[in-house]
């Protein structure tokens, strides 16, 4: 981990679920990774990438 990465681990105390979110900032880009230890579907996680849009005033 570095100073541009935020890691959140959520423990759902009354269930077996542990979810992990990793958010990484790099310039105008952001990446969100999600993982869960138990899933009722085939998907155990995903990754999303985005970028900052330039704001223009009309």
SSE map:
Elements: E1 5-11, E2 18-26, E3 29-36, E4 45-51
Number of H/I helices = 0
Count of folded domains: 1
Binned strand content: over 45%
Sheet with the most strands, sense and barrel status? 4 strands, antiparallel
Radius of gyration: 15 Å
Order of helices and strands: EEEE
What are the segments in which pLDDT stays under 50 over at least 5 consecutive residues?
Answer: none
Principal-axes shape call: elongated
Mean pLDDT: 90
Seen as an oligomer or otherwise, the chain set is: single chain
* Spatial strand arrangement across the major sheet: 1-2-3-4
Give the helix level as a range of percent.
under 10%
Total beta strands: 4
Overall SS class: mainly beta
Termini, distance in Å? Answer: 40 Å
Commentary on this structure:
With 58 residues, the protein is mainly β. It has one domain. 0% of the residues lie in helices and 53% in strands. The protein has no helices and 4 strands. β1 and β2 (18-26) form a beta hairpin. The chain is elongated and about 50 Å long.
Keywords for this entry:
58 residues, mainly beta, 4-stranded antiparallel sheet, 4 strands, 53% strand, elongated
Concise summary:
The chain is mainly β and 58 residues long. The protein has no helices and four strands. The protein has one domain.
